[in-house]
Design a protein that fits this description.
The chain is mostly beta strands. The protein has one domain: Sandwich (Jelly Rolls). It is built from one helix and 17 strands. The strands form two sheets. Strands 1, 3, 4, 6, 10, 11, 13, 14, 15 and 17 form a ten-stranded antiparallel sheet that branches. Strands 2-5-16-7-8-9-12 form a seven-stranded antiparallel sheet, with no helix packed on it. The chain is globular and about 45 Å long. Pfam families: 3keto-disac_hyd (PF06439). This is 3-keto-alpha-glucoside-1,2-lyase/3-keto-2-hydroxy-glucal hydratase domain-containing protein. InterPro entries: AL/BT2_dom. One of its GO terms (molecular function) is hydrolase activity.
């Protein structure tokens, strides 16, 4: 009986500590412990939530690595790794780098392409055959070595819309003003999210994009639960996820600062 009481007390204390972490603003907190992804959920297209098919997301050398060496045919198995807690007002920062060879059976647009999803639906509300989460994406791209500009820190909107330059913009992706980053270099990406108000994208210290009023609406997401897609609903909070869509990529130094709500 005493042991059970102690365990219950520790569980409640853990819940209080977690709540305090989620609500206490003004302090940088790591989301990735450098050792494992036990605080994260995996959801990959064609698979149930929690199944890390092909060991897609793995941890080595304090880095979250996205790899496809156990795949065979890619088969549109788009994947996302979600932090366990939703957020609303926050400043998030991380570093990413593209590495290795693109999975040749993935769609061609995924070459040197990945991203960070935010205000995402809970992955546990996604059917097995839903391809993308209803979310907003801070898209990461690298140069293709052809001398043409290919900015990073762009905005993409699976199942969502935003207001850009003060007007509803229904384009799926909008380019940022960032320069092009070639090769396997680390790039620092930051996003400042103020609920359903202003969103700011920052690349290597430069503000490259701002927009507002993220909301549910539009195409691209398929095979979703209709209850989850209420078009026109403001997106005030949601889950954060790292993307896998055919290009090996590394993520490190993932930290968040909860910001005070007005």
């Amino acid at each position: 009986m005493i042991r059970s009481t102690i365990l219950i007390g520790l569980f409640l204390l853990s819940g209080l500590s977690h709540s305090a972490f989620a609500q206490k603003p003004g302090k940088w907190v790591p989301l990735f412990n450098g050792k494992d992804i036990k605080d994260w959920f995996v959801k990959i297209h064609h698979h149930e939530v929690g199944e890390n098919f092909g060991n897609t997301f793995r941890v080595e050398d304090n880095i979250i690595k996205v790899r496809y060496d156990q795949y065979g045919d890619y088969n549109n198995q788009y994947g996302h790794l979600y932090y366990k807690t939703p957020f609303s007002y926050y400043h998030l920062k991380l570093e990413y780098r593209f590495v290795g060879e693109w999975c040749k059976t993935a769609p061609e647009y995924t070459i040197l392409n990945s991203g960070l999803m935010y205000h995402s639906q809970d992955p546990r509300t996604m059917p097995k055959e839903q391809d993308w989460p209803i979310s907003i994406e801070m898209q990461f791209l690298a140069g293709l070595g052809d001398g043409k500009p290919r900015p990073t820190g762009n905005m993409c909107s699976p199942g969502t819309h935003i207001f850009y330059n003060g007007k509803l913009d229904t384009r799926h992706c909008i380019n940022s003003s960032s320069k092009t980053y070639e090769g396997e270099q680390w790039v620092k990406a930051e996003i400042i999210v103020l609920g359903d108000s202003l969103i700011t994208h920052i690349i290597n210290g430069d503000t490259v994009m701002q927009y507002s009023k993220p909301q549910i609406g539009g195409p691209v997401v398929n095979n979703y639960d209709p209850k989850q897609k209420q078009d026109g609903k403001a997106l005030k909070s949601g889950f954060i996820a790292l993307q896998s869509e055919g290009q090996p990529i590394d993520f490190r130094n993932i930290e968040i600062m909860v910001l005070p709500k007005p």
